[in-house]
Every structure is written in C-alpha cells, then in structure tokens.
Write a structure and sequence with these properties.
Layout (H helix, E strand, L loop, with lengths): L5 H10 L8 H11 L3 H8 L14 E8 L9 E9 L10 E4 L8 H7 L3 H4 L9 H8 L3 E4 L2 H16 L7 E3 H8 L7 H5 L9 H7 L10 H19 L12
Parallel strand pairs: 1-4, 4-5
Antiparallel strand pairs: 1-2, 2-3
Helix pairs in contact: 2-3, 3-6, 8-11, 10-11
C-alpha cells in the first residue's frame, strides 16, 4: 500500500461521498451484458452478494496494490497482494502475490517506500499476463481494502490500458469504517478549541487500536493480510453476526 500522509488521509476520509447506494447486483447484471473481455464478463456474471446479506455469510478477499505513485493517470501497479477470507477466518493457503513490470517510470521516491527496484521488475511479468487470474480470484467475493481510491482507480486504469475496458465493484473500506467508529475521530467542539487532532486512520495506526501485531509495511501481500485482520477486529468490535453487508460497504 502506497500510504498517504496523515493529513492527506484525514482529508480524504472526510471527503468520501455518502450519497445513495448503488444497486450493485443490478449493476453487475448490466455490466455482464455490456462487457466484451471474457474474464471481465465472467467477473460480472458471478454477481455480487445482496446488501441485506449478514456479514457472516459473505465471502471476502482482502486486496492491496503497491504502485509507482498516487496518480493512476501517470503511475501504475507494481505489485498485487490478495488474501481470501471471511470475518472469522483468513485463508492464507489461497493468498496470491505478484510483482508486476510497471507501465510507467519507477520513481526513486516509490522505490524507497516499497523496496521494489528496477532489477526486481526487470524480468517481472506484464500486468496483462495476470488479468485473467486476478479477476478469477476476485469474482464472487466482496473486496476489502484500506482506502478504496487506490485499488479502485488503479485497477480501472490498468484494465483500460490493457483491454480498453474499465471495472466497477463495491468494496468494504476498513479506513472508512475506522473513520466512522474511532471514538477520537469524532471531535467535540472542545477538542477542536484545544487543538487536539483526530486519530490517524492509516492501516498500521488503526491496527494498533485493536491490539493487532505490527507487520512490515508497504508489501502488497502483507498489507492485504493486515487489512483483512483489521476488518475482522472491526467486525468483532462494532458489528454483530447479523449485521447486513450494507452497513459495511462503501
């Protein structure tokens, strides 16, 4: 995960739209008819679980990208990590990790963050070679991320470049959940007058509040695992087994 600064994270979370929720099952049915690429069509044909489904019955997959920067118009994916799960179990035997040859320049600043160097990506596969496998692992599952703009925008941009079709999908965003439920995030007027800042909702800082262990940052597979565990902790703290999916997704 290519982390934003703490002040950028806070602003992004506040700016998240809270408008009318999309009818995702109907949208997927429409996109299944409209899509031309076989793997993308299969992704949509698998459908999406109804918003009323209890979270305990939902198949999930935690997803994380490392990228060459933060702008999908100028930057690209350099590694992908995913971990299948549900709210009670992490299925590590199904985890996948790819290092991808980026389509754009590998910036020194991003190398310092994720440690993926030019020599590492020199013989790495192109993104086009993993599209079918990646979409197969995502289909039929609710995708879990920490800060949805990265995975949604970068996957859409990568598919547009390679198959001339973008992608739409709902997510459960653990950063958005943390923004909602972190007690210190809800500042009172008094806290504002005293100059107290809201808690950081970055992945590592959020995990600390639930007494989850520290993991190495900026590795796509480890961050996907960390995101999945954070969701489990959030569900155990803030929700019940009968909580509908609609209470969690963004």
């Amino acid at each position: 995960m290519f982390y934003l600064a703490k002040d950028q994270m806070s602003g992004q979370a506040r700016a998240m739209p809270q408008g009318k929720r999309l009818d995702w099952p109907s949208r997927f049915a429409f996109l299944a008819e409209a899509s031309k690429h076989p793997s993308l069509k299969a992704f949509y044909q698998q459908g999406v679980v109804a918003a009323s489904t209890p979270i305990t019955e939902v198949s999930l997959v935690a997803l994380d990208f490392e990228t060459t920067g933060l702008d999908p118009r100028r930057d690209s994916i350099v590694s992908i990590g995913l971990v299948p799960m549900n709210i009670s179990r992490i299925r590590c035997n199904g985890a996948k990790h790819w290092v991808i040859k980026p389509e754009t320049r590998l910036h020194p600043s991003s190398v310092m963050i994720h440690g993926i160097t030019h020599s590492v990506v020199e013989d790495a596969p192109e993104f086009s070679t993993v599209i079918d496998t990646l979409l197969a692992h995502l289909q039929g599952k609710m995708i879990v991320v920490h800060y949805s703009a990265i995975e949604r925008r970068f996957l859409h941009a990568a598919l547009m470049r390679h198959i001339q079709e973008g992608i739409e999908f709902p997510v459960i965003d653990t950063m958005e959940i943390e923004a909602r439920y972190s007690r210190t995030w809800r500042q009172t007027l008094w806290n504002g007058l005293m100059g107290r800042q809201p808690s950081s909702i970055r992945l590592t800082d959020s995990r600390t509040r639930y007494h989850l262990p520290y993991y190495r940052q900026h590795h796509a597979l480890t961050d996907a695992l960390a995101c999945g565990e954070l969701l489990q902790a959030q569900c155990a703290t803030h929700f019940t087994p009968s909580t509908p999916l609609s209470a969690l997704w963004s």
